[in-house]
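User: Show me a protein chain along with its predicted structure.
Assistant: Here is one chain, sequence first, then structure tokens.
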Amino acid sequence: MTESLSQSVSGSYLVSSDPIKSTQMLPTPVLEGPPKGSEPNWGLLNTPTGQQTCTQLEKENQDLRYSLKMAHCHIQAQDTCCQNLHIGKLHLSLYAKETKKLTGCAKLFSGRRGQHLTCPEFIGLVDIADAAKADMEKHKVNNKAFQAAKKQAKEAIEVQWKKIYADHVLALENWTMKCTQLTEAGITASQHPKKLTRAANHNYQQNFRAGRLAETKEWRGVTQQLVTLKWMNNQLNIND
């Protein structure tokens, strides 16, 4: 059984010990064109079921068989299209797994070709890579300090906010008690003091909006250096 499967085109993928790679395209099951024949006659579903002659029954039976055959062709074509979509998705997954993102010194040799390690262009690429790495480390340190300050300030604001909220609840209870006393005294609701409103908690966003903007600008600078490094590496590969 294994030998017969390995001799076929599609069965060899099931018994092979080598992993499937994105360069090995699986055979597509999609038809070359739309299924032959016309659409099924769905109007036969609404045919009245009264008394019919033998000839009419034979004609209806023949039409039903033909429509069922056409429906089977369309369902088979839809199934093969779904299989082809799954194969395409599998191929993309394999390609993404094989082509991992290059990091560190691997970016300097991304073209899979030799490089002159002493040429000024390559030395410039190394300098740019070192500068980008240093900026990345600096950005991580600054971001860590920013997150710590952000957490500390948030905790301080939460303490203040809880105090403001407790004071508001107490003031609201006093307002309710006062309104009850005025109502018992015969004073109409239109003459009652206005209900107290609680301030919105927007201090956190306003305090850190400027800091987040500065952090975003710094990150864009690091990204621009990485793009420049990739462009210069491509130019070296073209010149070679």
